[in-house]
Amino acid sequence: MNRLCIYDTTLRDGAQSEGLSFSVEDKLQIARQLDRLGIPLIEGGWPGANPKDVQFFWQLQEEPLTQAEVVAFCSTRRPGRLAAEEPMLQPILAARTHWVTIFGKSWDLHVTEGLKTTLDENLAMIRDTIEFFRDRGRQVIYDAEHWFDGYRNNPEYALSTLKVAIAAGAEWITLCDTNGGMLPHDIARIIRETRAALKSTTDEPIKLGIHTHNDSDTAVANAIAAVMEGTQMVQGTMNGYGERCGNANLCSLIANLQLKLGYRCIEDAQMARLTEVSRFISEVANLAPDDRAPFVGRSAFAHKGGIHVSAVQRNPKTYEHLPPESVGNQRRIVISEQAGLSNLLVKARSFGIDLEKQNPLCRDILTRLKELESQGYQFEAAEASFELLMREALGERSGFFDIDGFQIHCHQERTLSHALATVKLTVNGREILEAAEGNGPVSALDAALRKALVNFYPEIAQFNLADYKVRILDSNAGTAAKTRVLVESTNGHQRWRTVGVSTNIIDASYQAVVEGLEYGLSLQERAKALLSLRSPG
C-alpha cells in the first residue's frame, strides 16, 4: 500500500533547463544510471520533436533498459483534425514504448487563448488522442497541464477534462502545477476536492500522480503534500533540473518519502547510490554539483569545528538528521586531519586500492590531494585520474611513455578551422616526433599522441575520445580564468574519465588527454595480466 511509482522526467522536462543540453549519448548514460537506481518510469523525450529524441528511442529499442520502462511524451492532437490523421503522433508509435504520456489543457484560459479553440473541442482532443493510443496497445498517462490553476479558475470545466481522460482509458492522471505557483495547503485542498469529485467516475480506484515546478521554492513540499493526500505517482527530475526555477528534485523527494515517511520508492541498496547518481548526472549535464543540496550535496553532512565536531564524533545523531551512508553520501569533518585520512581511504577503496591508515604515504597522498583540489581538480567525476594519483604515490604507476613537449598551430580559413599538433615523446628509450591534424587543437593533439604511440601499443587504435567538457572555475577572471577540462575516453567496452586544470585551456586539455591514454593502457595491461593468470601453464 505504501509503494510509490517514481517517474523521472530529467531527459525531457529537465532538459528544458536554461543552459543545459544533452547529447544522445548523454541521455543514454543518464537513462542507464536511473535504471540501475530503480526508477520504474523514465520519460525519454518527445519522439519526432527533434532528431536526438528519435535516435534515443531507437537505440533503446536495440539495447533495452534492465527494469525501467522508457516513456514517450507528446501533446493531444491539434484542433480540427482526427488523431488518426495527426502526423505528430506517428513518431510516438514508432518509438515502440509500452507507456505514452499525453499532456492536455485543464485551464480554460489556455484553451481559448493558447489553442484558440473551443472548450468542447479541447475535450474531444483529449478523448480522441487517448483512445488512439489505447486502441494501438499503449498504456497512457494523462498529464493534466496547469491543473491547479485551471481548477482554481473553473473547477467544473477542469474536472470535465479529467473525466474525459479517465473514460477514454488513461491509466494514470497526473495533476500538474505547471506554473509552480501553488503552496502545500493549496495542493492538499485541491487534491482532496478532486478525489471526491472523481469518485463516481469509475468503479476502479483512480490512480493519481503529481508533477510540481519550483517557481515558489515549494516543489518538493508540494509533491509531499500530494502524496500525503493519496497520490501514488511522483514526477520530478534529478537535481531539480527544469525550465525556469526547475522541477521537484527527485533526490530530495525519494529520500524524504522513503527514509522519513516510510513510503517505498526504491530498494535500500539503490538508495545508497543516490548521491553517486546525482553527481554523475550533474557532470554529464556539465553543471557544477550543488554542494549544499540536501542529502546528496558535498556539504550536506559536513561539520566545521567547535561544538558540532565534538558532538558528532561522540554521536552523529546530534547534528545529522539521518546517516549519510543511507543516501550514499559521507560525513566530512572539515578541519580534522584524521577525518581527511578516512575520506581518502574510502575513496581509495572504491577504486580497488587498499591504503592502510598506518601507511606513511597516506599523509603525503592526502596533502597532494588537498593541494590539487584547491587548484580546482575534482576527482569525483575523474576516477581514472584519481587512481593514477594513488598508484603514483605507491610506486605502481606504469611508465608507458614520457612527453618531452608539444606544439599546436591553428589556422583559420574563412569559417573553417584547422589545427596541427606536433608531439615529441619517449617510449622505451626511443625518441618519437610525430604530427597530426584535427578540426581543433584538442582533436589534433589526441590524434598526434595516438599516432606516435600506436606502433608500440597497437591497442591504442581502439581508444577514442567519447566526451570533452570544459568548466570555467573563476569566471570573474575573464580570459585569464582557470579552466577544468574533463575528458571521457573509451576502448569500446569500458569508459573512464580524466581531468586537467590550468589557466591555459590547451594545457588543461593536454593533461586530461594524456592521462586518458595512460589509464587506457593500464587497463589493457591489467587485463593481459589477469588473462595470463587464468591461462593453463
UniProtKB/TrEMBL annotation:
Residue ranges crossing the lipid bilayer per the database entry: none
InterPro entries: 2-isopropylmalate_synth_dimer, AIPM/Hcit_synth_CS, Aldolase_TIM, Citramal_synthase, LeuA/HCS_post-cat, LeuA_allosteric_dom_sf, PYR_CT
Signal sequence range: none
Gene Ontology terms, MF aspect: (R)-citramalate synthase activity; 2-isopropylmalate synthase activity
Domain Pyruvate carboxyltransferase, first and last residues per copy: 4-272
EC number of the protein: 2.3.3.21
Broadest EC class assigned to this enzyme: transferase
Gene Ontology BP annotations: isoleucine biosynthetic process; L-leucine biosynthetic process
Metabolic or biological pathway, per its Swiss-Prot or TrEMBL entry: Amino-acid biosynthesis; L-isoleucine biosynthesis; 2-oxobutanoate from pyruvate: step 1/3
Catalytic reaction annotation: pyruvate + acetyl-CoA + H2O = (3R)-citramalate + CoA + H(+)
Keywords from the UniProt entry: Acyltransferase, Amino-acid biosynthesis, Branched-chain amino acid biosynthesis, Cytoplasm, Isoleucine biosynthesis, Transferase
Gene3D superfamilies recorded: 1.10.238.260, 3.30.160.270, Aldolase class I
Keyword Cytoplasm annotated: yes
Family per similarity comment: Belongs to the alpha-IPM synthase/homocitrate synthase family.
NCBIfam families reported in the protein's UniProt record: citramal_synth (TIGR00977)
Protein known as: Citramalate synthase
Organism in which the protein naturally occurs: Zarconia navalis LEGE 11467
Name of the coding gene: cimA
